[in-house]
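[Meeting: bench + compute handoff]

Bench side (C.D.) handed over the final construct sequence. Compute side (W.E.) agreed to return the predicted structure before the next meeting so the bench team could plan truncations. Sequence as handed over:
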Amino acid sequence: MTPPTAPIVNECTSIRKVMEKPGEVQMEARDQASDASATEVIKHKSTASDEEEFYDCLGDNYSVVKSESSEMAHGLKEDTPQGKTSAEDGECHPQCTAGDEADDICGLSEMIKDVNMLDARTAENMTEESQYEEHEPLSDAKKEEQEEEEKRRVESALTDEEKEELRVEALKIKGEGNEEFKAGANSEAVRLYSKALSVCPLSASTERAILFANRAAALSRMEQTEAAIVDCTKALELNQSYMRARLRRAELQEKANKLDEALADYKEALTLDPNLGHARIAVQSLTERINERNDQMKKEMFDKLRELGDMTLRPFGLSTRNFQMQQDPKSGGYSVSFVQTPKD
């Protein structure tokens, strides 16, 4: 970044003159000494707005660079005797030597280099942050989807014998998971079931459905209800008639207060096996709970509508009590009648 101030550009030009032609600089200083009466001190012509624009370009480095610049300028003014001008003025008075000018200019040059280095670091950090924001972490569902797609691609190149070997290996790991589950080591059981799923080929849908259902049971013990419901759903996607997964998901749905979903699972279970007494009792219980919930929701809705109606009718001296609703016993519908003087 090049600071947009004319004095710094002049100093950079002076640096090249000192380094490339030091003799000419000394002769120029002597000529200025002989013409001291005609030489005037050139003042800094940069406006306040130019300075602020320069420091705005520095961003977070504003305070550091401005502080160093102020200290440097203060030091130049203190070291400059009467009849001299600072390096910022662009010219030397007769008493100023070329060496002094070179030292001051080199100091400003070092400051400019520091500013450019700081600005480069800032740009690099911003680039890294933008790259980090662009690559958001994948969700667990997305990761599993990608892993399954990769697994399908790899298995397409395997022979039937190789797939059978993987299936047997997965069943072995599942057995280890079952032992951990019986011992109450639910976290370890989840790990082993997950490992077995990663080994078991996709073509072995029955075995994979059992693994998902077993992992759901372990997750349920760990109070990870939503994750267990997801695993039960995956098991049922692989085997719609898997009764254990169906009943387990129904219980989990009821536990999560998803009454309608639980009722649907129990009804489906009764369709597969009408002799399931537990499912029949659950259907009856859930139906009553759902009706009570709906009645409560209906009451709350009517109460809110009544409040809204009273607020609307109040300017006219009326209220919702002026309107009576009567239900038709045959059709179950409602009719509304107006009552001039409602009874309290």
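W.E. noted at the follow-up: The two ends are 82 Å apart (CA to CA). C.D. will use this when planning the next construct.
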